[in-house]
Design goal:
Number of helices: 20
Shape: globular
CATH class of the largest domain: Alpha Beta
Oligomer: single chain
Structural class: alpha/beta
Distance between the termini: 33 Å
Number of strands: 9
Length: 409
Amino acid sequence: MSDPFRDHPLPTGPILGAGLLIGFVLVAVIAVRAAGWSASQADDAAGIATRDLRFTDQADGGIAVIDAANGRPAAHTPVWFMRQAGRSLPEYRAVRGEGSILDAIKRPDDAAELTLQPVRRYGVDAAVLYSDIVVPAHAVGFGIDVAPGTGPVAPEPFRDHTDLHRLREFEPEADTPYVLQTVRTLAAELPPAVPLLAFAGAPFTVASYLVEGRPSRTYEHTKRMMHTVPALWHALMERLTQHAVASIASQLRNGARAFQLFDSWAGNLSRADYDRFVFPHSQAVFTQLAEQFPGVPGIHFGIGCDHLLERMHAAGPSVLGLDWRTPIREARARMGADLVVQGNLDPALVLAGTEVALAGTDAVLADNMLADGTRHPGHIFNLGHGVNPSTDPEVLHAVVRRVHEVTAQ
C-alpha cells in the first residue's frame, strides 16, 4: 500500500516528469485491463492515476478540514462526502466483492484501498474510514450483520435484560484488530494535508437497529422500550455509549485526526423524547472523547433533525452536520454566528447531472457567505446525506473542483 510518489517526488524537469506521468498512467491501464475490466473502466483508471499524482503532490501546510472545523480560515473550503467510498465507483466494486460489508471491513488491505479510492478519484480533503456503525456490536458477538440491499439485520433483537449479556463492553484491540490495522495503514499512506476521519454510530441509531432487528419506519419496539422499560433502555444506551467512545478513541489513537458521530435516525424522535432518552448519552460520547483527546474536532450528524439541531449542538460537537433541509444561514441565526457547519448539498441534485449539481453547489457556497461578502471560515462542504449508489462519479468530481476553485484564497 506504499505510495512511491509521496516518498520519491516526481523530478521537476518537464520531460522526465511528463515521461513518468505517462508511464504511470499506462501501467494503471494495463493493470486494470489485465484484471478483466472493460475499456471504459480502464479509461476511468487512467484518469484516476493522473488525479492521484495531483493528489499526492499537494503542498504541505494547513489542513483544510481541521482548520475549518476549528473556525479558522483555510486555503479553500474543504470538501468530503459521506459514503464517498461506495458502489458508485467501478473500482470499489472491483475490490469490494459480494456479501456483507462486514467481510470486506475484516480485510485491512482492501478496507484501506476502499478508503483511499475516493480520495484519489475526487481529490477530496478528507478520507473517512471504510467501516460500518454496527462493527462494534457485531464484533462482541451480539448477532448482527449487514444484509446487502437491506441494511443491519439482527435475527434475535434486543428485547430484555438478558440481552445485555450478548452486548458486552467493546475492546477494540482484541475485538477489531483488523480495523486498527486499516487505520494505521491509512495514517501512513495519506499525505499530511488529507486527514483520516474516524466515525461511529451514535447510541440511539445503533440501538434502533438492535431493538428493531432491521431498518424501521415506525421504531415501534424502540419507542415502546423507551417508555415502558426506561431502565433497560438507558442500560442499553450506556453500553452503546461505551462502544462508540471506545471505537472512536481507538481510531484516533492509531492515526485518525477527527471524527463524526452518526445519529442518522434521531430525526424520528420528538424533541421531548430526544432530550429524555438520547441527549444524555450522545453528550457523554462527546464529553468523554473531549477529555481523552482535547482539541480533536468532532462532527455530529443526523437526517431530518432540524427540530433537534440546538440539542445536537449542545451535546458538544465542534461541527454540526446539516442535511439539505436546513439553510446554513438559518442554523447560524438560531445557534450563533460562530457556528461551524458541515453540509449540505441535496444528494438528489447530484443525480440530476453536472449542471444541476453545480448550481446546487453554488447555492450552498452562497449560503455560507457573510454580510460583508466574505466566506464564513467554519464550513466543511458535504452532501446532506450519503452518496447514492447510482451517482455518476464525474458529477462528484465536478462538485469538488467547483468548491475548490470558487473558494480558493
